[in-house]
Design a protein that fits this description.
There is one protein chain. The chain has three domains: 86 residues, Sandwich (Immunoglobulin-like); 103 residues, no CATH class; 135 residues, Glutaredoxin, CATH 3.40.30. The chain is of the alpha+beta class. The N terminus is likely disordered. Strands 10-9-13-12-11-14-15 form a seven-stranded mixed β-sheet. Strand 14 and strand 15 form a beta hairpin. It has 13 helices and 15 strands. Helix 4 crosses helix 5. Helix content is 45%, strand content 25%. It is found in: Cell envelope.
C-alpha cells in the first residue's frame, strides 16, 4: 500500500512539473561547448528577427533563457558578433540545446514537438537540398542564368514536398509557416487549396490572416496585363508612385538587402541603367526589407541610382502581394502603354531585350 501511494505521489509531482513547464513558459537549457565564459548569447523571436528578444551569458559552457509564449514561434540563437547561430522552434516546454563553438547551426534541439515536425520535413527535402548545393557550387558568370532556371524548378519541387507535409500535418505551426513563406511563389489559386488543409486555429493566427489576405488580393499579374500602380515610401520617407516615374520602358525590380542573388545581379543592372536611362529606360525598385537602415546601406553600397521604395513589411509588401511575387529576385518589364511585356528577365536576356528595344530600332 505504501508503495502504491509513493508511486501515485511521484506521478502527481512529475505531472505538476510538466504542467508548470507548459503553463509557466519555456526554459532553454543551453550547452555551448568550447565557448568562453562571459560570452553573450542572443535570442531572437520571429517575426521580429531584427530585435533582440533576450540575452544572457555563457558560464561554464552553459546558458539559460526563460520566458513565455502565447504560441510556438521560430526562435534564433546567436553568439554575439559572430555568425554562430541556430534557428529552431520554441514553445512553452523545457528545450535542451547542445552546440559547439563555430557549429551552432548543427546543434541539437530537444523538447519541442514542432521542432520534431520541422526536422521531419527537412529529412523529406534532404535530397533536393543536396542538389541545390551542387548547383550553387557550379555557378559562374557564364552559366548563371541557365543554372538559375534549374534552381527555380527545384524550388517548385521543394514546394510540392512542403504541400504534402502540410496535408499530413494540418495542426503544425511548421505547416503554417511553410505556406506563408511559399504563398507568393505558388499564387493565390494554389495557396487557397493548400490553406484549406490547415486547422481553424492556425487559420485564425496572424500568419493565417496574412495568407487569407493574399488569397483575396493577389492578382497574379502576367505578361499582357496592364500594370497596377505602386505607391510606397522612398528612402527619404517621401511617398512615390510608379506612374510618376514611368518612362518608355520601366523595370519593376523586387529585391531586398538580405537577398544574395538579388545583390549579385545589381552590378549588371547598374551598367544597363547607365546605358539606357537617357533613351527612356527606367528602373523602379521595390524592397522586401523590414530594416530601413540595412535597406539604405544596400542601396548606397550597390550604387542603385534609381527610385527605390518599400513599405518595410518584408514578404508581405503590398506591391509584392499585388504582383504575385513568388520569390526574389523577381521583376517585370512594362512598355510605354503600361503593359507587362516580360517577367523574370535578367542577365543576358535583359541585355538582349534592351538592345532590341533601344539599339535595333
Amino acid at each position: 500500500m505504501k508503495y502504491i501511494i509513493t508511486v501515485i505521489l511521484l506521478t502527481i509531482i512529475i505531472s505538476s512539473c510538466h504542467n508548470k513547464s507548459k503553463n509557466g513558459g519555456y526554459l532553454i537549457n543551453g550547452i555551448a561547448e568550447n565557448v568562453s565564459d562571459s560570452t553573450k548569447v542572443l535570442l531572437y523571436l520571429y517575426p521580429k528577427i531584427d530585435e533582440i528578444a533576450d540575452s544572457t551569458f555563457v558560464i561554464n559552457e552553459e546558458f539559460q533563457f526563460k520566458g513565455n509564449l502565447s504560441r510556438p514561434r521560430l526562435a534564433h540563437l546567436r553568439i554575439i558578433e559572430s555568425r554562430d547561430d541556430k534557428t529552431f522552434w520554441l514553445e512553452n516546454q523545457q528545450i535542451d540545446f547542445i552546440g559547439k563553438k563555430g557549429n551552432f547551426f548543427n546543434g541539437r534541439i530537444k523538447g519541442s514537438e514542432t521542432q520534431k515536425e520541422s526536422e521531419l520535413l527537412l529529412k523529406r527535402k534532404d535530397s533536393i537540398f543536396k542538389e541545390m548545393e551542387k548547383l550553387e557550387a557550379k555557378v559562374t558568370e557564364k552559366n548563371r542564368d541557365s543554372l538559375f532556371e534549374i534552381y527555380e524548378k527545384m524550388q517548385d519541387v521543394e514546394i510540392e514536398i512542403n504541400n504534402k507535409f502540410i496535408q499530413d500535418y494540418p495542426n503544425s505551426y511548421e505547416s503554417l509557416t511553410r505556406l506563408n513563406w511559399s504563398k507568393e511563389r505558388m499564387g493565390s489559386e494554389k495557396t487557397s487549396i493548400v490553406f484549406s488543409y490547415l486547422n481553424s486555429e492556425l487559420k485564425s493566427t496572424e500568419e493565417g490572416k496574412a495568407i487569407e489576405e493574399f488569397i483575396s488580393n493577389n492578382r497574379n499579374l502576367k505578361i499582357g496585363d496592364k500594370f497596377v500602380d505602386i505607391e510606397q515610401a522612398n528612402i527619404k520617407g517621401e511617398m512615390t508612385k510608379l506612374s510618376k516615374i514611368h518612362k518608355n520602358y520601366t523595370l519593376i525590380e523586387f529585391w531586398a538587402s538580405w537577398c544574395g542573388p538579388c545583390r549579385s545581379f545589381n552590378p549588371e543592372l547598374v551598367e544597363q541603367y547607365k546605358l539606357y536611362k537617357d533613351k527612356g529606360f527606367e528602373i523602379f525598385g521595390v524592397s522586401l526589407d523590414t530594416d530601413k537602415e540595412k535597406w539604405k546601406k544596400a542601396i548606397k553600397k550597390d550604387g542603385l541610382n534609381w527610385e527605390n521604395v518599400s513599405d518595410l513589411k518584408g514578404a508581405n509588401n503590398q506591391a509584392a502581394v499585388t504582383y504575385g511575387v513568388r520569390d526574389i529576385p523577381d521583376n517585370l518589364l512594362i512598355n510605354e502603354k503600361g503593359v507587362i511585356i516580360a517577367r523574370l528577365i535578367r542577365g543576358q536576356k535583359l541585355e538582349e531585350k534592351l538592345k532590341e528595344l533601344f539599339d535595333d530600332k
